[in-house]
Amino acid sequence: MARDTPLSKTQRKKEMLGLQALGVELISLSSEQLAAIELPEILREAVLAAGRITDFEGRRRQTQYVGKLMRQVDAGPIRAQLNAWRTQQNTHSAQFKRLEAWRERLLAEEGALAELMQAYPQADEPQLHKLIRDARRERLGNHPPKNYRALFQYLRSIIGGGD
To answer: CB of 78 within 8 A of CB of 39?
Structure first.
């Protein structure tokens, strides 16, 4: 659609709802995350106020106000920062799941240790073997998962996987 053609009412409403949804994301951020995003002071105050409101109707009205203020701001940098945080979170989650999968394979499959040693030769095989053996004993004896956690920590140190 050409730039000189006015937006239809539906398109304007869709954009406004998108900005309001972006405002809702801002409201859900922690104060540290909110401080990391450059916002006009009036918008920052409105977002902080919305976070403090517990009444449903009051929060809804404040959210609409935040959406209205969002129309006066370039939403691109805000979206970019939120997307960067989401990407970082998704990467961290994927690494965590990969570590959990290795731990479960090591505890369930006999050949998994050899496969892990092939993929990560810097690992200490006797230490891994001991951690796996002790974690299996813990499971069988319904003991606290001390070695189960230690195995995860060791895998994190050799494979990497977020902090």
So the answer is: yes
Q: Could you read off the pLDDT of 97-134 as tens digits, one per residue?
A: 999 999 999 999 988 999 999 999 999 999 999 999 99
> 91-159 domain in CATH 1.40.20.10?
no
Tell me what percent of the chain is helix, strand and coil, each rounded to the nearest 5.
Answer: 75, 0, 25
Specify the pTM. 0.60
Same fold, 9-73 and 91-159: yes
Candidates 1.10.60, 2.30.29, 3.40.50, 2.40.50; CATH matching 9-73: 1.10.60
Is the pLDDT assigned to residue 2 strictly greater than 80?
Answer: no
